[in-house]
């Protein structure tokens, strides 16, 4: 099936949803401290999302029980907020997906609690670089498979591994739509068109790329070797000459060659 394209009206709505999702990550930052539980962080996110006239897309999604996903250290993704308490040196990904006026915004960031090990610091930095490098390949006429190829180079150079079991995805009124966005070298030939909206959300591991799903709760994904994993995610719109990052945070704007309106097409 052909990938659906956003209308001008839909672009406004996705921009609004993306802004709320991004704002949740900005809002929660001062609360991410040693001593707080992931369940408490979830409560704060839920209250904020509702205050913005939005709802969580995760809550109730295939039975998911909480508002956001919070994945600590060896947890790769889909960590269920609960009694786990944060400690100095932890790294944790908070993944926020909201629905506003029917449209979705999906974004995540890995936070560091206090001071972490140099290896964890490097992992977090490389995971963010992986996302940014993927984003920088996107323009109308580039290819979907360029994203994974670019990310693979970043991970290989850092000698980290890339999770293969979870991918980016088309997003609009539908949470997980086509196309599937692989974060590793692949042959998914798909010329990108202006108006496509999808996420890029590489999960990078220190050790093995292999994952396990918690067999008690059916959700929480951990690394098979229990070494750390880090992830960053943005929702983007393909434009003629690059892409628009719907979920950009102010702290990212103008750093590492990133801005809301990316110009990525190589000049002739
Ligand atoms: N936000 C995740 C993603 O990036 C999906 C979470 S689904 C949930 O696709 F049910 F676990 F919340
Ligand atoms: Co996503
Ligand atoms: Co997400």
UniProtKB/TrEMBL annotation:
Subunit structure: Monomer.
SUPFAM superfamilies, A to Z: Creatinase/aminopeptidase
Cofactor(s) essential for the protein: Co(2+); Zn(2+); Mn(2+); Fe(2+)
Family annotation (HAMAP family): MetAP_1
Organism name: Candidatus Anaerobiospirillum pullicola
All copies of domain Peptidase M24, residue ranges: 13-240
Function: Removes the N-terminal methionine from nascent proteins. The N-terminal methionine is often cleaved when the second residue in the primary sequence is small and uncharged (Met-Ala-, Cys, Gly, Pro, Ser, Thr, or Val). Requires deformylation of the N(alpha)-formylated initiator methionine before it can be hydrolyzed.
Identification of the protein by name: Methionine aminopeptidase
Catalytic activity: Release of N-terminal amino acids, preferentially methionine, from peptides and arylamides
């Amino acid at each position: 099936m052909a990938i659906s394209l956003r209308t001008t009206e839909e672009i406004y709505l996705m921009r609004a949803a993306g802004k709320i999702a991004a704002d949740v990550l900005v809002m929660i930052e001062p609360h991410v401290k040693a001593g707080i539980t992931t369940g408490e962080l979830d409560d704060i996110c839920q209250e904020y999302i509702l205050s913005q006239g939005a709802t969580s897309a995760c809550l109730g999604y295939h039975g998911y029980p909480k508002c956001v996903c919070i994945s600590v250290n060896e947890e790769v993704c889909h960590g269920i907020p609960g009694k786990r308490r944060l400690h100095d040196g932890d790294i944790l990904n908070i993944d926020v997906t909201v629905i506003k006026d029917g449209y979705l915004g999906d974004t995540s960031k890995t936070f560091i609690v206090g001071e972490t090990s140099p290896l964890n610091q490097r992992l977090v930095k490389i995971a963010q670089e992986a996302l940014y490098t993927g984003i920088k390949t996107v323009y109308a006429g580039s290819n979907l498979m360029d994203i994974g190829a670019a990310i693979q180079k970043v991970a290989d150079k850092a000698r980290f591994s890339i999770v293969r079991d979870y991918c980016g995805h088309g997003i609009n009124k539908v949470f997980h739509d086509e196309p599937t966005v692989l974060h590793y070298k692949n042959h998914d030939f798909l010329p990108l068109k202006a108006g496509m909206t999808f996420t890029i959300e590489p999960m990078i591991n220190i050790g093995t790329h292999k994952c396990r799903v918690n067999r008690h709760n059916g959700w929480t994904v951990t690394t098979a070797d229990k070494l750390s994993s880090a992830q960053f995610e943005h929702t983007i719109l393909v434009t003629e000459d690059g892409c628009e990052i719907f979920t950009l945070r102010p702290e990212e704007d103008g750093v590492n060659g990133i801005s809301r309106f990316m110009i990525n097409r190589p000049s002739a």
